[in-house]
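SdpI family protein
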Amino acid sequence: MDKESIAPLIALAGICGLSLVIAWVTRYHPPRQINLLYGYRTTRSMRTPATWQEANTYFAHYFWRLSWTLPVLAATAYLLLGDARALVVLLAGWVLGLLIGVVRTERRLKRLFDDNGQPRN
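Structure:
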């Protein structure tokens, strides 16, 4: 393998590895208090400690599962499409997966809590 063909492999592995590390940290060491630096931060999730806890727990589990699918997506794209296009497919899948996770988490918060962050009966 030459340098040109190994660079995309390193990038693919790096993205997958970074995603798994971030997912592990958010799942096993979630933020304990509402803050602006770390955790799932949206207006709805930051309303109360209960919404904060639910959003961070739910999204962390989702992101953990998403992160384990990325190496499969990367390997499949690399085998079928080649170097550079596999990187584009991985990044597109990662961004799409994150967007789906945000939508799912926000819908869950809306279903479980009212607009003031109080649990629905």
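The helical segments are 3-28, 49-81, 83-112.
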